[in-house]
Amino acid sequence: MKSFRELAPVAARLRGIFCDVDDTLTHEGVLVPAAYEAIARATAAGLRVVAVTGRPAGWAEVFACTWPLAGAIAENGAFAVRRASDGKGVERMTWDDADTCHAQGAKLRALADDLVRDIPGARLADDQWLRRCDVAFDIGETQQLPRPTVDAICARIRAAGARCITSSVHAHAFFGDHDKAAMCARAARAWWDVDLDITRDDWLFVGDSPNDQPCFAYFPVAAGVANVRRYLDRLAPPPAYVADAEGGYGFAEIVDVVLEAR
Question: Which CATH class is domain 2-95+178-261?
């Protein structure tokens, strides 16, 4: 990985920033003021900024409506939302249709019940009630589960035929072929008529953990905050660039370099 300072030569061509939230904009569970300010400054400079998170659809609605964002993607690509173009309400989309999501939800709830019953320490994330398309287990938010327990949770999810991905705080169970990068591409086309497959060199992604892997692989200009180093054994490829600081402080470093070079 190269230093985030080497982003300067590509900064002028960037059209926007897709960024994770937990441990990318936050530090120890709290939004870093410098990271929020960086979003505001990037938006004011004409960049489109989109939050891309494993957090629930309910959180994304708040982000999209109250933060200076061009939109928000949630549940690792299952859901996307932005303020309506006429300024009234919001525009939502899910990766799968409503009937498919409903059928998937019934299977996921049954899986979650079995898993919580059978694996000591397994429990649902506190934000589960705000989710539309996945089930999230708390592995690092209000408790720190040991790696063997996390591996056991993920193994049970996959044995049930579901997909599993982990972030710094949650293990996610879901069905469908979506991921963060795929929904970035779908949202860009729907919202701005932009083909990311052609223009992906012109967009920056910033993240920190394994559920950001699809975006680290998809975006040539991908950066990690410093805490991404904890997961290098599970990232192939890792991000091309890395900040010196962790969490939202690292995000602010990255945005500072981009804006100063534009």
Answer: alpha beta
Cα→Cα distances 127→65, 117, 134, 135, Å: 19, 19, 11, 10
Q: Which amino acid is at 257?
A: V
pLDDT per residue as tens digits for the range 36-73? 999 999 999 999 999 999 999 999 999 999 999 999 99
174 DSSP 8-state letter: E
| Residue 86 pLDDT class (50, 70, 90 cuts) | confident
In angstroms, the CA 116 to CA 169 distance is 17
Q: 94 Cβ partners below 8 Å, 6+ apart?
A: 78, 79, 80, 101, 132, 133
8 A C-beta contact, residue 78 and residue 174: yes
* pTM, rounded to two decimals: 0.96
Domain regions of the chain by residue span:
2-95+178-261, 98-174
Tell me the CATH class for 98-174: alpha beta
SS3 letters across 242-258: ECCCCHHHHHHHHHHHH
Give φ, ψ of 260 to 5 degrees: -65, -30
